[in-house]
Amino acid sequence: MYRATLRSVSDPLREHVCLSCLARGLEAQPWARRFHTAPRLRSQATESSSTVAIEEQLKALEKNLPDRRTPAHVKKSLRTQNPKSPQNADKKAVRKAAKQEAMKVRKKDPANQAADAETPKEENKQPEQKDKKDQKARAQQKTSPDSSTSPKPQVSANKQSTKLQLPVPITGKDTGKINADRDSVKALDVETPEVPQLAYGLDRVLFNPGVYHLRDPRSRVYNFDPYLGSIMPVTEFDFEALKEYITSSKDEQLRSLAQKEKKKYIGSSSSMTSVLSHFHYLLSYWREVNIQQVSRGFQERLRTFTRLLRAPSAMFLRYQNGVYAIDADKEHDTANILMNLGKSMEKLLTMPKEEFERYRRSSSNKISAEEEQAVPEAYHYSTYGDFLMRSQLDAYDPRLPGTGMFDLKTRAVASIRMDAKNFEHGLGYEIRKAHGTYESYEREYYDMIRAALLKYSLQVRIGRMDGIFVAFHNIERIFGFQYLSLPELDMALHGQYDTALGDREFLLSLQLWNKVLNKATARFPKQSLRFHFETRDSTAGPPYMYIFAEPVTDEEIHAIQTKNQAEIDAYQRRVLDLPGRANEDDDTTTNDTEDIPADFESSSPADDLAEDSATTKSETSQDEAETTPGKEIMGFALTVRNIVDGEYVDRPIQFQSPNKWSVDYELNHLDSSKCWKLYNACQERRRKALSGRGEDETDVAANTYIRRLREYAKKGRKYRKEQNKLDEQEKLVVLRD
Fold first, then answer.
1. What does residue 711 show for φ and ψ, rounded to 5 degrees?
2. Where is the composition biased (Low complexity) (predicted)?
3. Residue 80: strand pairing partners
């Protein structure tokens, strides 16, 4: 075989040769196809005979080729030919006359006349369209999404506005245009007490992006004081010593400031963010969250907000002495351990160890309620339009940009959040790695994007803060910390680090909200009102927002706000007096299937907007017995159209400060005698969403996720037991000790 290969290389002409290819190279006719077969083996013919045969064939072929050169007499004729000779002139005249005769016949035909009339328009129109497309393409090429030099934003495809289809008649509408190009939130110069700073050297987290581990899992070295590793149990912390939270309607200083500044509406950051979230859904055309920070290996890719966050929002507008106070509606509020733990951990992060230990019930130097009350709360006050907004100040660092203020957030792990009422089953779940579907910071950050960052970003803007400081924990231990600045929050929510888009949307939301409240208070002057806001998705067009306003008395407000108070008090007594788990490592003490309802679903369901569509279809089929026709109600359906730099768009993309953003709004008035069905359906959707036990659950049966979390919690308890044994054998190492 090796010798045969050598022969094929050394004697390539011994194979079949196509002489037609050679003939075409010598300008032979296409039909001149001749073949010559050379012997395959040296024994059949010698090399010289095959070569001679090929050369003879080529010579014979070359002799028979026709001469394609121009004959000499033809060349002479061409040189002597005169284009202006009479003979050539006659030929031209004949051709010209024939052409003119054909044009006369064509003009007499009506069909040809119509075609001739339309052709120039089409020919003129196509170049114009092409020029416009070319100009637009060149403009898009010049403006890249990450460009900081050009203010031209990328905009989403403009969908045609469709007429709003509602199941009740529209009795009227208010239309207008708003913009906030030159507006900004104005801060009031009010003297505030000193704002605390972070303790234990935690300020290092503020200036290092990403997660900062409390303890390095590989080297087991503590980056901060090991005292932070164990959280004081809620049964040992004296919550009665803490100051009670003051709602907007009970804040006399806030009301007096509003009267001084001639503002009509007052509210706190916690009572306003829920409603402002729905204005974000409306103005952003249900913009999906940005999960680019999540690795490709992370299994879940859902980019919608959680069902709990999309649920209808309710609030009270309580009237007193010419000022309306915004209070959150607590009809479906329930107690959980995270409410208590958030208060105690804020003290832990901003106090030295000795001062924090004074809040322990068994402390010999326990802090008294009088001492706690003597330290006033620090608030920031700002105004915009008719609003006066209050924001509690948690922490401060003078090295941060702007005001230097930032918010403190304590974020429990997934096993606790998904069933906060029965948190005992989720104890032990730990964060042990950076990436992964479970037991990772990536899981916590992904859930936080979908469930909490929108609320956090709105609170930061109301308080004119720089960002949020997050502590990740499992109720028993703290695992790490992360500082998220406002640009990072906007990147996850708006898809860009430039805060211009989020700032402008915040101001436009306040303007729309202001107009809605003005309409309702004009209809029911000097009365307290109960509002419901819900942004609805539409399969046939852009989203719209349902708004319902119902007059209520102080007695009705009190009954609604204290509806679940007895249940909350009972839970608080149970949790605060809860004894320590003596057999926490005994696998037989916890039944992993206990208290899991059959209709419980995990935090990673398929998008449940289909259920909302089904609810919409049933809005018009409810019984008349469910309505309350004897009571007045005011209903609206709000739609908007975004205009960026003079062009209608679904939503702004890569928006910058020089860009102009205005909004055409249409506030449709619903027939008050027939919109009770819509109102009842909205209340039912809210009740159904808030009656769940987890952060993102629906009514579809899916126990797999919660079972998986409890399995990891059981493994975590075993892992922690092993780590505690190592700590007993080895000396703890602390960085910069």
1. -65, -45
2. 138-154
3. none
